[in-house]
Design goal:
It is built from 8 helices and 7 strands. By secondary structure, it is of the alpha/beta class.
Length: 212
Amino acid sequence: MTRLSHDRRNDTAMIADIARRVVRQLRESDSSGGAVASSANPATAVVGEKLITIETLDRHAATGQVVAAAGAIITPAAREEARRRGITIQPAVDAAAGQADCHSNHQANGLPASLPESLRNQLDRRNVVLPAGVEIRWCDEPAAEVYRCCSNGQPAAMIAALSDVERFHDEMAPQVWVLDRQKLNLIAAVNVAVRIARCAAKSVQPNDGGSR
């Protein structure tokens, strides 16, 4: 065994030992299960997990989302498992802001203020208007977002290409259009949003009841 390989093994063992001690201390210091209330906004404080492991993911599997307290430790195994299962790990501050402004978070044109500013600005410049009840989201974990929407009674569709829009519109007329940020860059997302707005506008236009 070379000295280099021996040092690497020692470093790996030391890191693993430190991780185990940190996890043990967190568990011992929080007998309530690791959940704490975020104090960033007392009026809308939400519970966040200080330590997120695979066991934590199991407890939140039904909602598909785990709220992490400020400074929370997320084990590598939990992070990988969350990606595999489509579970979102969200900071407590962001979750509190979303709860406090879940209704006013939507602008008059139907575009949520939670959309990335770059996309929202491009859509605003093109005067993209969505009918009431129709929403666009652009996120990194679209499958998990679609699951959450459907669980809340909102028909939702995941869009990864421009050609998906007409098909999903004709088949299910979703209320929430979830754009896959991994496959749609800014230009593609703008084009998809414009197509969604056109399809949604056509579906709410009254029929011309001309006399025969």
